[in-house]
Every structure is written in C-alpha cells, then in structure tokens.
Amino acid sequence: MMSADFGEIVQFPSNGSTATGYLACPQAGGGPGVIVIQEWWGLVPHIKDVANRLAKEGFLALAPDLYHGETATSPDQAGKLMMSLRIDQAERELSGAADFLIGFPSSTGEKVGVVGFCMGGALSLYAATKNPRIGACVVFYGGHPNVKPDLPQLHAPVLGFYAGRDTFVTPESVEVLSEELKAHGKQATLHIYPDTDHGFFNDTRPEVYSPLRAAEAWKEMIAFFRERLV
Fold first, then answer.
1. Residue 166 annotated to the active site
2. Considering 137, 144, 197, 198, which one is annotated as catalytic?
3. Which of 1, 54, 144, 189 could join 61 in a cystine, given CB atoms 3.0 to 4.6 angstroms apart?
4. Which residues 6+ apart lie within 8 Å of 180 measured at CB?
5. Of residues 118, 137, 144, 197, which has the active-site annotation?
6. Rounded to two decimals, what is the model's pTM?
C-alpha cells in the first residue's frame, strides 16, 4: 500500500550544476544513505513510496529525478524518455546524490547503498562500477540497451532480483551476468523468481505485481543494506 509523502524535493550539486530529487529521512534521526533509482516511468509516486519505506526502516533515502520533471504514463512514452536519457549525465547525478547523502548532517557511514528498478536497476549496477563510495548494490530486473557496466571495476557486493517470465531482461541474460560476475571474482547473489513478470515489485501495476515475491525481496534487501551499510 502506498504511504503518504513525508519527504521533500531537494536540490544537490552535480558536477558543477544542480540536480533535484526526492529525499525521505528517518523520523527517528540519522541513518545510512541509500540512492533509489527510478524505473523508465520517471520519479513517480511509486519510487517516492520506496524512498518513504526505506526511511521507515531507518535509511536516509534519495531518489534523483533523472528525467528532470518529466514522467511517463504509457510504455511508448517511457521508452522514449529512457532512450533519450544521457547515461553520462545520469551517472554524474548519481555521484552527486552519493556525495549529498554522505555529507548530509544526519547521515551515518562513509558509503551509501543503491537500489534501482528496470532502467534504474541497470544504472544501479553501472553506478557501483563507477563510484567506490557505493557499498551495496541492489538490482531489480535491471536492463537498458545503452548501459554497459564495467564489471571488473565493480566496487560493491550485488543483490539482484529478476523475473522468470521477463521478456526484456530474460533469465538467460541474468545467467550470463551471473557467470561474468563470478569470472571477475565479484560477490553477487542473483535471484530469478520463476513465477513473476518484469516489474513484479511495483504495487501500482496489478497486472505484474507479486505481493509474495515483492515482500521476500524487500526483506532480503533491507537485511543486505543493514549488513553492508550500518
């Protein structure tokens, strides 16, 4: 169930410019930072809700607005926005988000976590190969044709959740990724849920949402972040 916003839109420095995002803070005080990376729909209420839920678990959560105010309501529109995204600019904004979280007054720890969904999942893994300040990387069915993570440079352990009925990020592609990570000696746990579709974590999309698998993944992700970041 969606929770009411208790966060706020903030601005943060990004490579000589300014980026914006949705920040949700733990009500009990400080905590480790986690970057939440949007699906191809944009910074929609679902992504804000993920940040809110992370804040309720004790994390300082920031969801950068990589589309700079634009959101999509149809797959065609979302696909156009995703393909027009400048990956280099997105990576700089994610790096700025990491700096912002680490420097935030109530932040704890010297590293941040990152979690992304769909397009954001690909960017989550990509950011973890670019930024040594990322200490834990979570990927939900991550895929983007223009995002090619440099896996030998991966700085963080990876936890991934994928869908067995996914035709965009296929189980076969996940197996290839798993083998590549093993070949490079990286620490990764990748789950493929055979009874799920792409987007199974998104509770605003009843046609694909899986309450059981979403709950399982959430529980494991929170434990992963607590082990790696707290």
1. yes
2. 198
3. 54
4. 151
5. 118
6. 0.96
